[in-house]
Amino acid sequence: MKKLLRPPILIPATFGFLFSIFVNIITEYVLVAGQTAVSLFFALFAILLLAALYYWTRTHPTQTIFRPPIPLRQPLDRERYARRGLIAIVSLYTPQPGTPAATLTPAQRLAAAQAGDATALNFPRSNYAPLIKAVTSHSKNLQHCWLIST
C-alpha cells in the first residue's frame, strides 16, 4: 500500500480522477442538450488528451546493455560482435624496444607527430597496438569512439 501512496503514483492518479469527474460533468451537460455524437467525441478527445499528457510527462530511463567481453579473434566474430561505441584510454606514446622509432629522441618523435609521419613512429609496434587492433576490430559497427588521455 505504501507503494501506491507515493507522490509519483498519487499525483497522476488524483489528476486522473479529477479529470474524469470533469469529463463526466461536461458529458452530462452535453447529453442533456441531446447531442450524443458531440458527447462521444468530447469524451474520446478527453481520453486521448489524458493519454498524451501521461506519455509526455513520463520519464524514459536510459537503456544500457552490458554484455560480457567476447574475444574478437576471427573475422566472423568481428562482424557479429562489433560494438557501436568504444572508450579507450590513450597513454603517452612509447615505441617497442628494437624498432626504428625507439631510437628517435623525444624531439624527433614530436616533429614526426606534428608532420603526420606515421611510418616513422611505427604505431603498430608501439603501446598503441592494442588500441589500433580494437578500433579495427569494431570498425564495422563503430559509430562513437572516445579517446581519453592525460
Write the layout of secondary structure elements.
Elements: H1 7-32, H2 36-57, H3 75-81, E1 85-90, H4 106-115, H5 118-121, H6 129-137, E2 144-149
Parallel strand pairs: 1-2
Helix pairs in contact: 1-2
Tally of extended strands?
2
Ends: how far apart?
52 Å
- Give the DSSP E fraction (strand runs of 2 or more residues): 5-15%
Radius of gyration: 31 Å
The helicity comes to 40-55%
Structure description:
With 150 residues, the protein is mainly α. It folds into 2 domains: 7-57, no CATH class; 75-149, no CATH class. Helices cover 52% and strands 8% of the residues. It has 6 helices and 2 strands; from the N terminus they run αααβαααβ. A two-stranded parallel sheet has the order 1-2. The relative contact order is 0.11.
Question: Which properties best describe this structure?
Answer:
rod-shaped; single chain; mainly alpha; 2 strands; two-stranded parallel sheet; 150 residues; 2 domains
Provide a short characterization of the protein structure.
With 150 residues, the protein is mainly alpha-helical. It has helices spanning 7-32, 36-57, 75-81, 106-115, 118-121, 129-137, and strands spanning 85-90, 144-149.
